[in-house]
Amino acid sequence: MTLTSDEITKIREVISNTDKTLEETDSGSHYQNTYTYFYVPKDFGSAATTTDDTGLGAVLRLGGYSDLEEPENANLGKSQGSLHAVQSEVYPTQHISDETSAKAHQNAPGKQTNGENNEVIKRQGILMACDGRVLLRSGEKIYVHAADQIHVQSDENIALVTVNGSIDSTSGDKFTVKATKKVSVRSGVGDPDTYTARGVNNSGDKGIEIIANDGNSDVYIEGNSLFLQVNGTSTADITEDNSTIMRADNFEDIWGHNTSIFRGTFFELYFGAGLSYRAAASLNVATALDVNIGLFDVGITGVEMTKTILEVKSSMFKSKNVAVEAETTATRARSDAVCVGSTATKAESEVVTASIGNVKSLIAFWEAKIASTAQI
């Protein structure tokens, strides 16, 4: 077939159009166009042309948004693009939410900005989407760098695995970890993971658990101050020695019953002055030898009621001011170096048993004697 001169001229005009020109170079293909793409439709349609191709199979678009992404525009005589109807399958969900559905295709390459002298700066982007898998593998390093936000979303699970290396996360601002359900932090996990949670682990489905090497390694927490808010019960089960070093004041406010059980020996030292006040009655029972050694025993007692089986005391110095003292003693032995007592009121009651004579008859005899003497 021979081309006419007019046909050759028209072909040259098409080739010379800078908006549609394809330049073949030694390094690849240079497209002088606003966009170019590779598109594989999901459905090819019944016609032998591309006009009825629909759906997303796979697409790779370079540059600005393409005719595939455009909505219908009757004024310009444009029909809806094959990918506009399935916009939620082509663009990430967060992109549609950030830009709104109406502008999702316009800002898909990047938002237009105004430069110096209000010059409009257009961005050129990359769109890659498919209805299957995206496989990416590198024999060396992979670099991902964004000058703005990076958003990664999965509708199922996300797994980050390093076979031989570590994972480091660094934030220039705050670092937030959120979960709808449980958060678990574990170290020393083997392969396979054979750890079984203890029965006392009541973190449940929405709790937080921190486990160091299946309970065989240490946990270290350091900070300036610590505030612990417990809205329920608190339990500490310690299998070895426990030490608490308080280098400042200590305050405890217990609003309920307090129970302390010592199954071994105990040793206490107080090097400062002390004050103990009890507003209610108390009972102290010692079933073994109770030895108290004091340099001074100074006390002010309102009422003292004691019943002592055996009392042995050796005092260097004792000063006591007693308002009321009532004592009933079976056996009492006391050896005092110095004993100074000041008693406001002391009442002693002893039982006297009279076994010889009749007291009443003696009283009557002496009354009669006095009467006869008075008559004489």
TrEMBL record:
UniProt protein name: Uncharacterized protein
Species: Roseibium alexandrii (strain DSM 17067 / NCIMB 14079 / DFL-11) (Labrenzia alexandrii)
Taxonomic lineage: Bacteria, Pseudomonadati, Pseudomonadota, Alphaproteobacteria, Hyphomicrobiales
